[in-house]
Amino acid sequence: MENKAEEVKTNQPIKSPSGFNIIWREIVRDKLALLSLAFLILIIAFVYGIALFLDQKEIVKVDLFSIYEPPGEEFLLGTDYGGRDVFGQLIIGTRNSLTIALLVTLLTGIIGVAYGVISGYFGGHIDNIMMRILDFFMILPFTMIVIAFVAIVPKYNTITFSLIMTAFLWMGIARLIRSKALQEKELDYIQASKTLGSSNFKIIFTQLLPNCSSLIIVTMTLNLAANIGLESGLSFLGFGFPESTPSLGTLLSYARNPQVLEYRWWIWVPASLMILLLMLSVNNIGQALKRAGDARQRRG
Amino acid sequence: MWKFTLRRTLIMIPQLIVLSILIFVLAQLMPGDALSGQVGPDVDPKRLDEIREQMGWNDPWHEQYGRWVGGILQGDFGDSYRFKIPVSELIGQRIVNSFWLSVATLILSYLIAIPLGITSGRYNDSWRDQLITGYSYIGFATPLFIFALVMLWLFGFTLQWFPTSGSVTPGLEPGTFEYVMSKLYHLLLPALSTALITTYGTIQYLRNEIVDTKQKDFIITARAKGASESRVYNRHILRNSLLPIAAFFGFEITNLIGGSIFIENIFGYPGMGQLLVESITLRDYTVLTATTLLFGVASILGALLSDIILSIVDPRIRIK
Description:
The complex is a heterodimer of chains A (300) and B (320). In chain A, helix 3 (31-53) packs across helix 14 (265-293), helix 6 (124-139) packs antiparallel against helix 9 and helix 11 (200-237) packs antiparallel against helix 14. Chain A has helices spanning 2-11, 19-29, 31-53, 56-59, 86-122, 124-139, 142-152, 158-167, 171-185, 188-195, 200-237, 248-253, 258-263, 265-293. Chain A has 300 residues and is mostly helical. The termini of chain B are close together. With 320 residues, chain B is mainly alpha-helical. Chains A and B meet through helix 6, helix 7, helix 11, helix 13 and helix 14 of A and helix 1, helix 5, helix 6, helix 11 and helix 12 of B.
């Protein structure tokens, strides 16, 4: 009798850990990812918090009496050629860079996932045509095309800038999701659903997308890191944010002046470090998420 | 083989047409034209309109597009608005500079990637492998322009080992030995900066390829037949692992094009990337469209090259 009861007990399926549990366990196991996450949360809280009290107009106001001041009591990180406080610009700039990177990541994610799912799930002629279009976008030289577009938009702001970036960045995630959808739709659970008469709409939203979710999350995290770099690169060249809207890239662009690069490290070094740290930590988290999504690679 | 190459080349034609239309439309949308800068008290606006009419700038867009494409096919990109010389003349020297910079970058990046990839794959999971993987991880996360700035600051300004701008020391006679050496000297730092930071992909790919090949049956057979360790690596593994790397050659070109705009601007190297940025600042739209078009064509050719090499290396692609 007792034996039987025990048997029943062991036969009960052990509840498998939920998705968030797996992700959390993976991040805790990976000290570097945990550190990165802590750093990122701190930076985001700090930057968005402080920026509430800083006035962007006040920061970018030219003050001719304090040009190129080295770091000191009054200016924590010195001033630039317009006498503007570099520390304040760094805070606001980090916020602006993060905002645009998040916005672009979100927009490219939505467009890319929709495009990839439609192309992969429906297949056939639709897939063929959609992939030809995607191939064309893939081979366009990103930097050049974006620069040309920025040059013709008469007055651009955060929204238009992120739309231009999005227009030429959605292809990577679309391609990944498309091949995932192609594999996934051949599997039994979707075929069974189809046989039972579920609508395509229902299959895509309740079955296909949840099974792509880990791939989507990982790709978007890695894209976020890349977008931080792309935005600062474009602003560095002078085709991203204008000077009146500081970003990490505009701070770096002052280093195109050899004088600044050689003698005034306080203008460009902090911004470079910030970009590096942001990109590295987002990448670290992305790698941990990637392992969490693939049971064979998990550490925990 | 030839069938695939032909088919792949034919796909290129619509791509080129769409690219040229895209750039043409961009050029049309740009505010102002070559004459709007000349409006002044001495110039009669009516006269300018007459010139516009004569130049055909009021014609329907498809006629203008036809003329533009026709000109380009004959090597005529029009005249630069600013410098009043043919764009092709303006581009000529710079395209040569950019070409040599790309060649140097490619050579350096393979010189770095192949030994590191082989070491990493051969001794995988050793400290050497971890060191190299760490390096490529940092390379993956560092934007090219930041690294280039640091290199310029360190080797150009602080240590003064390398020149900080230009492509050649002024005053040297072209064709002399000193001239060539000076050119090499000027492109070494930009090329090295790009190579060091963009080579991570090749290293990791080669590493994974070697780790995979190591466990294949034919390697076990080679060992069983008594082949020495160096023979196993150099003759059997390397030959099989290097082929896919060759296929990435075309993508490398596309990457280089994207990077050149940063590198040339940071190192003050007079190439196509610098010309593109200058043309926007000067609102020199004929130059802008010509350079964007050339960059686009180079990217398309790079993709074509990749696919063709890949089809030679991996026959499965041809069948599809």
